[in-house]
Amino acid sequence: MSLRNELDPDRSIWHFIALEALRLRKLSGLTGQALANQIGCHRSYVSRVENASIHLSVRYAERLDEIWKPVIPFARLVRWAEASDDGDWFTGLTWHEARATRHRMWEALLVPGLFQTEDYARAALSSGMVDDVERAVKTRLARQEAVFGQPDPPHLTVILSWAVLAQPVGSTNVMREQINHLLTAADLPNVNMRVLERASGAHVGLDGSFRIMTVEDRDVAFADAPERGRLVTDPGDVQRYAVRYDRISDTAEGIGSTRAALERALETYR
Question: Per the database record, which ranges form the HTH cro/C1-type domain (predicted)?
Fold first, then answer.
């Protein structure tokens, strides 16, 4: 069964967008390549949007609106979909994550998924976050490979709350392995890792973890939430996340101090 046969427009606005984009393309007599040429994207992008394996961006939605002038503009549908919570956030996250050339991450409670060891991920996911733990672990490791396995890996700037290091996840050995992994990752030329110490007090990052990803010439944000997150592509909303990230960054320790913080945390798990 093809991906298109599995789309349900009654369940997901993104599925409706995918099927409507396919319908209007066929109605206009355009091939996928011809449409890609008109809106300035790759042929595979058109196919993936129509399969709902990625989410249509506002940028390309506006170009479709210029071509077809639909009764309900695609740009409006995309904004509705982004504001809704239909459970289809993970598709957009993994697509942007694997293609981003720059990642800016703020993590308030857990080691970011891209930096988790297998045992740490398993311990965290076993706490009741998912139904199929082993499947989720494999997915997480595959996401890491998609980012770090690239010939030219992206630049990652990571700010960790002190609580990430203080919160035990799994056994003492699991935590030691995880912190050692963070120390190794922090030495990578494409990784800038910093810690926001407890003494910093109240700050704008206390209301939750988020990240900003740069894909091609635009930024998208992703905000964590229990069970599911939210992908944000509206430029104004993304800019607010960027300002929040800068405010957190202004408070975080420098790179040298961060290594000392990681080493101190490692000593607590002996």
Answer: 19-64
Which tokens sit at 137?
A: 């672990």
DSSP H/E element including 155? strand 155-161
What CATH number should be reported for the domain whose range is 4-83? 1.10.260.40
Q: Which tens digits make up the pLDDT trace of 2-11?
A: 556 678 887 7
Encode pLDDT of 66-80 as tens digits.
Answer: 999 999 999 999 888
Q: Under a CB-based contact definition with an 8 Å cutoff, are residues 263 and 186 in contact?
A: no
Tell me the two tokens of residue 146.
């998609």
DSSP letters spanning 23-36: HHHHHTT--HHHHH
Q: Which fold has domain 89-267?
A: Endonuclease; Chain A (3.30.870)
Torsion sign, CA atoms 260, 261, 262, 264: positive
Q: 213 pLDDT exceeds 90?
A: yes
Q: In which residue ranges of the chain is CATH 3.30.870 found?
A: 89-267
Q: Is 250 exposed, middle or buried (0-12, 13-18, 19+ CB in 10 A)?
A: exposed
Nearest to 81 by CA among 123, 21, 138, 2: 21
Number of neighbouring beta carbons within 10 Å of residue 156: 23
The pLDDT tens digits for 110-139 are 999 999 999 999 999 998 888 899 999 999
User: What distances in angstroms separate CA 47 from CA 51, 54, 113, 166, 170, one per listed residue?
Assistant: 6, 9, 28, 45, 42
CATH 1.10.260.40: which residues of the chain?
A: 4-83
